[in-house]
Specification:
Number of strands: 18
Distance between the termini: 26 Å
Number of helices: 14
Helix content: 25-40%
Low-confidence stretches: none
Structural class: alpha+beta
């Protein structure tokens, strides 16, 4: 639907040919879940039903938001168990009819207390709070995502195997899946999800669909809708898609790189468009508008905490290998794909001149709860603005090529290499206090407890066993 809160009449009109409405949410483990309802055929009954659904939603046990990826069990320490209920209420601006499944529509949910107030553990509401805090500075974030996934088919023995053995951007890999990719991207366009590009990726059977930037909340909704469309179309053709970060140590993993920009609310101007001195990045740091530099510096400083919301699973950490373009060090760079924060460049019409429109965060994958991931980025940026931080010089080489002395002199340090190490260091991470203030201390505690439980479950398992459990969950 169009942005802005639609009227009940507009909702009814959108749903006039819909029989089944999927009420969707993403839990703290990054798993897409839903409840479904059948809509009454009678128009008056349908209107009354949708009005009641809007006002009171449907009930769900509080523990269901905090189930770990390895099984539907309540994790001790979250404070969420069998006692207590929330209401799942549709956020109608996210309503989409599903082109691959006639008569079906999906809508993202807001989680409310029984009295109608916003539930503190609602990930969607956490992102809205973060965006609201950013708006107090006269700014809003836009972002877009690169969705990487692997397509599998079942062989004659029923084993999952990638659909091809191709390499990066191999033409034949695209040709083999051209009809399916066409159907996927056509569905996305029908759902008002813009496509930048799509192609084969590095691993066997791996593909990437890059979606256009838009307002942060809409972008996250569209990311979840993109995954739903990819899955729905793939299943129609007997294929199994997976967004799991790492399935095989011998090949590249799947990320979900986030590209973000900051815009002035009053003018709509993208602050990245004012970045200058981009033609001499090897000898001089680019010049940023003050608010933008402070925001990026905050994200950089807070990366050890941000990563627990953006690459938060045990499987995520298997993908974070140096010299594999994953972004394993606390650095930023200009067109440096070993940097977790990469300033992108585009040529201008003037020879030797460049411009930029966004920053890429490579530390994002398909096991993240994306509302929380983007909220963490915004919160870290707010910290940088509050402290008026500045960026260090960009790192323009693979950081593993720095000697220990060089790395120490330039302040280049490795990000945490395990979930326990990341969690143990949270209290000392610059910006984590701002994340707890904006997103909620109790919500972040739930995330950390669930992720630590997942670590404990998988720590002694080989990747093959772990992937067998998780491949069709993500």
């Amino acid at each position: 639907m169009a942005s802005g809160e639609p009227s009940l009449a507009e909702v009814c009109k959108t749903l006039q040919n819909v029989r089944i409405l999927r009420l969707c949410f993403c839990d703290v483990a990054g798993i897409r879940r839903l409840r479904a309802v059948r809509l009454p055929a009678d128009n008056d009954a349908r209107t009354r039903f949708l009005q009641d659904l809007t006002q009171t939603g449907i009930g769900m046990c509080v523990a269901c938001i905090a189930l770990p990826a390895y099984g539907d069990v309540a994790v001790p320490g979250t404070g969420l168990d069998a006692v207590g209920e929330i209401r799942l209420c549709p956020d109608w601006p996210s309503l989409r009819c599903l082109p691959w499944k006639a008569g079906h529509a999906m809508v993202q949910l807001v989680m409310r207390n029984i009295d109608g107030g916003t539930w503190d553990m609602c990930p969607r509401s956490a992102l809205k709070r973060a965006a609201g805090e950013l708006a107090k500075h006269g700014l809003r974030m836009e972002c877009g995502f690169e969705s990487e996934f692997i397509l599998y088919r079942k062989d004659s023995q029923g084993k999952r195997v990638p659909v091809d053995k191709s390499v990066y951007c191999q033409e034949t890999a695209f040709e083999d899946m051209a009809d399916i990719l066409d159907e996927m991207t056509s569905c996305l366009e029908e759902m008002d999800i813009g496509i930048v590009q799509f192609h084969g990726e590095s691993s066997p059977g791996q593909y990437e669909i890059v979606t256009r930037h838009c307002d942060a909340l809409q972008a996250v909704d569209k990311l979840l809708e993109t995954r739903a469309a990819i899955y729905g179309v793939a299943k129609k053709h007997g294929l199994i898609p997976s967004f799991l970060p790492k399935v095989d140590n011998k090949v590249a993993g799947s990320g979900c790189h986030m590209h973000f920009s900051l815009l002035e609310i009053s003018t709509g101007k993208n602050l990245f468009e004012s970045v200058s001195n981009l033609s001499k990045v090897d000898t001089a740091k680019p010049t940023f508008p003050a608010q933008l530099e402070q925001f990026i510096a905050g994200v950089l400083r807070a990366l050890p905490a941000v990563m627990m919301l953006t690459v938060p699973s045990p499987n995520s950490f298997r993908r974070l290998v140096p010299s594999c373009w994953a972004g394993c060090f606390i650095i930023w760079g200009v067109q440096n794909r070993e940097a977790p924060l990469r300033l992108t460049l585009m040529p201008t019409n003037e020879a030797g001149s460049f411009k930029t429109t966004n920053m890429e965060l490579k530390l994002f994958d398909g096991t993240a709860q994306p509302h929380l991931g983007v909220a963490a980025v915004i919160s870290a940026g707010l910290y940088g603005m509050a402290k008026a931080l500045s960026l260090p010089n960009p790192v323009q080489i693979d950081p593993v090529d720095l000697s220990e002395v060089q790395a120490a002199a330039e302040g280049v340090f490795r990000l945490p290499t395990s979930i326990p190490a990341a969690i143990d260091g949270l209290s000392s991470v610059p910006g984590y206090s701002m994340m707890t203030e904006v997103m909620g201390k109790d919500l972040l505690n739930v995330v950390m407890v669930v992720r630590k439980a997942e670590y404990d479950f998988f720590v002694n398992k080989e990747l093959e066993e772990e992937a067998e459990i998780l491949l069709e969950i993500y």
